[in-house]
Amino acid sequence: MVGAIRGPMTTTAMKPAIPRTARTILVEWANAQGDWVRTIVADVLASRRALTVERIAEVYAQFLVEKDLRAGTAVVVPPLASAVAAAEATETLTLLKLDAVENVNALTSGQAIDFNAGLTIIFGKNGAGKSGYVRILKRLARVRAVESVLPNVLAPTNARGPQRAQVSYQLGGAQYSIEWKGEEGIHPLTRIDVFDARAIALHLDEDLTYVYTPSDLALFGYVNEAVEKVRALLEGEVKSNTTSVNPFVSKVPRDTRVYPKIESLGAATEIAELEQLAAVAQSEVEGLDGLRERVNALRPESSNDRVLQADSERVFLEQALSACGVLGRFDRTKYEQAGAALATAEQKYRLATETAFADEGIPKVLGDAWRAFVTAGDAYRVVVGLDHYPSTGDQCLYCRQDLAQTALDLLRKYKDYCNSELKQDVDAARADAAASVRGLIEYDLASLTTELTRREKLTQGEVPPLLKNIAVVAAAVRAAQDAARQRQVIDTTASAQLVAALEPVLQSRLAEVKQLVGTLRGQADERKKAHADGSAKLRDLEARIALRDLVDDVRKFVVRAKWAHKAQTLSVRFRSLLKSLTDSVKLASEGLMNADFERLFRAECDVLSAPAVRLDFPGRKGQPARRKLLVTDHKLSDILSEGEQKVIALADFLAEAQLKISPNPIVFDDPVTSLDYERMGEVVDRIARLSASRQVVVFTHNIWFAIELVNKFDKQRDKCAYFDIAQDGGRCGILSGGTNPRADSVSTITGRLNKAIQEAKAATGEAQAALIESGYEHIRSWCEVVVEVELLCKVVQRYQPNVMMGALDKIKGQALGAAITVIGPAFDKACRYIRSHSQPLETLNVRPTLSELEKDWAAVQAALKIYKAA
Question: Residue 119 forms beta bridges with which residues?
Fold first, then answer.
């Protein structure tokens, strides 16, 4: 009988009350299961980690014995005692440095990121190389949405070495350094939390399993993993003992009583019945050759040949009688009368036609071509439905010209020629003549002629009289057919006498042959039945002998099938076992995790001004999990804007990260994409506050976001590290430390412009023209920065959300107009010459000169100097 996975229930009556914890819930669940499950739970409680592969194998062996799937003595595990778990103590992890990066994307070697214990900002444009460094950290942390790390795909294959990086970190006051070689997940760096665009969908729409699980809740996951592995071992063995291919089917003859039993071999097969069939007596074996001889002798081929031969004679005689009948039924008198009538009708019709067309002067009149022409024209008239054509006023059907009277008369003759009574008499006489010889003409003589030829060859010159007479009749039929086609005289006098004498002989012979065919067919049927009975006995005996030789292997096959069926039944019950474990972890997680997470999540949503959503915690597979909903039937991504989705995901991520007992590093990869400036400011405030208690690393290409973060640490520069990341030609990921993102200044642009002018002076042709255009690019940028920094005194700045009203009185209003009259036109002129702006068609070929560039550059510098001196 198949054993149940669930074991005996235990009672805790009369025992002192134990505090309700995750550990006690797990113990209660284990005590309600089988002994093998309690073995797993006992090991997990003792080691507080997942079972090893070797231990899983031992538990699986215990399971097989317990469920009567393997011989042995079942292990009895007494009920487990409940205990209270000690609080988990985790040391703080801090990243110190990432350097020695090799063969990661197109990152340049020799770069290093020295992480600040508070906030580290890495700023750079798209394509500068940020993703390469982020992917290393993701790989080390083994995040949910881990990405593959590629080498420089543009480099030659032989130049791509192994991926490496050096990571230094601090744990519990001690410093460590590890070499990363492309692997995923290195302890303790797996404690790093990473938020990026890929994480948004996970944190937003998925039933998300907690990355961090408190100590006692982790025990459920270890137990779930062990149970799943036992199930996997069981299902693997079930698969190995279950095959869709029956190896015995091809070895047993079909149409025997053995075959259906072999074909349906499986768990339901009765071995005893097969063994009984396989018990072949020695006398049966000794009689096998004699049975084969009898079956071979009864083969129906010879009797079938005799039937075919007699039936061929029957067909030949019937064909000969048919030929006699054709000659006998031919009415010579009717044929001759019909021929005479046709000749008379044709003569009358010809004379009338010759008279009608005698004076028309038509070439080749009454010739074959003329007849075909006239007949075709009349047929066309009939098809188009012109019954009264030709009539006065009609047009010619051929040339579409009006018909003159002579043409009308001629066409009416044509019509009469085709439709006159004489023509109808000819047609009727011709039909009567054809009917008088129809039976003769339509008779198919080919089969009889072919058979006569075959039989004459077999006689080798000595043709029997009957065959000769039939040949004479066939020749007479052919001669009559030829004469009828030529409308010649047909003389059947001689053949009629032969037919009269031959028909009785053929009829008598045909009756004898038909009787012979019936007798031979009866004999053939009896032999066929005897052969079928003998063949069935022979196949049955051969099948039983084959089964006798296979019975040991068949027995093993059936035993395995019965084992697999029983094991498969137990495998299905794992589903309810794991569901009960999930129910237990739900019970444990409600008190230990979900309440804290919901409190933290709500707080983060308030800080980030996120939309209100409903939380649900659907545990699964022994794991605590959560989902977020506005309505039941739709995902959040179907309802919320991109910005709202992002802050919800960010709130979820931050709440989960704070569940960990110790503060671990948090990495943000472009966290403000799709956010408006108001929400971006909220994220800046939240990250700045977060860095006071956690190490935070931010990768971003948003200069406003980077500047705002840096500005939060104006008075605490030691709490923030800043790096620019740039691309130079084919070199990516070039890092340089600093205090804030690089921004254009008047002095830097002035230097670049002066250098461009000097280079242009040394160049000629298109090279000089390109440098002059570049110079106007710099003038345009210089005008923008001068207006922002010098003329408007930084009252309104790019990448700054606020207006600096305190500097408003520094603007020199009286001098502003004069500066604008020079700088404004220079800016417009620069826009016409640079490549990034479109130009009118008529000015496309107008290019600035070097002297023009120098003159414009001198003018705007002078205007600035005058403004500053005012």
Answer: 696, 720
Q: How far is CA 56 from the centre of its chain?
A: 37
Nearest Cα to 118, choosing from 716, 704, 866?
716
Task: Please check whether residue 538 is in contact with residue 297, taking contact to mean a CB–CB distance below 8 angstroms.
Answer: no
For range 612-630, the mean pLDDT = 54
CA–CA separation, 377 and 411 (whole Å): 10
Assigned token pair, 482 = 């030829």
Burial class (CB in 10 A: 0-12, 13-18, 19+), 499: buried
Phi, psi dihedrals of residue 341, rounded to the nearest 5°: -60, -40
Q: What's the rounded Cα separation, in Å, for the pair 254 and 4?
A: 41
C-alpha separations of 440 from 427, 443, 471, 484, 730 in Å: 21, 6, 17, 8, 100
d(Cα 318, Cα 324) in Å, to the nearest integer?
Answer: 10
In whole angstroms, what is the distance from residue 167 CA to residue 190 CA?
13
Largest CA distance in the chain: 150
Q: Locate 216 and state its tokens.
A: 């006692």
Q: How far apart are the first and last CA of the chain?
A: 105
Average pLDDT over residues 457-465: 81
Q: How are beta strands 696-700 and 666-669 bridged, if at all? A: parallel
Predicted confidence (pLDDT) per residue in 63-107, tens digit:
999 999 899 999 999 998 864 333 333 578 999 999 999 888 778
Block residue for tokens 């009349």: 378
492-508 pLDDT tens trace? 777 878 888 888 888 88
Distance of alpha carbon 501 from alpha carbon 495, whole angstroms: 10
DSSP, collapsed to helix, strand or coil, labels residue 750 as: helix
Strand partners, 545: none
The dihedral over CA atoms of 671, 676, 682, 683, expressed in degrees to the nearest 10, equals 0
749 neighbors 761 (Cβ within 8 angstroms): no
pTM of the model: 0.44
- Of 64-78, 160-174, 470-484, 739-753, the least confident: 739-753
Closest among 790, 796, 832, 830 to 812, alpha carbons compared: 790
Q: Is the peptide bond prior to 188 cis by the omega test (within 30 degrees of 0)?
A: yes
Going by the DSSP 8-state scheme, the letter that residue 385 receives in this structure is T
Pairing label, strands 208-209, 625-629: antiparallel
Q: Could you give the CA distance from residue 226 to residue 384 in angstroms, rounded to a whole number? A: 92
Alpha-carbon distance values, 183 to 106, 319, 378, 867 (Å): 19, 92, 96, 61
Q: Which residue intervals of 249-396 are DSSP H helices? A: 259-263, 271-277, 282-286, 288-297, 301-329, 332-356, 368-383
Residue whose entry in the numeric block shows the structure tokens 């066409």 = 411
437's torsion region: left (phi>0), alpha (psi -120 to 50) or beta?
A: alpha
Poorest-confidence range of 30-34, 110-114, 711-715? 711-715
Q: Which residues pair with 721 in a beta bridge?
A: 120
pLDDT at 435 over 60: yes
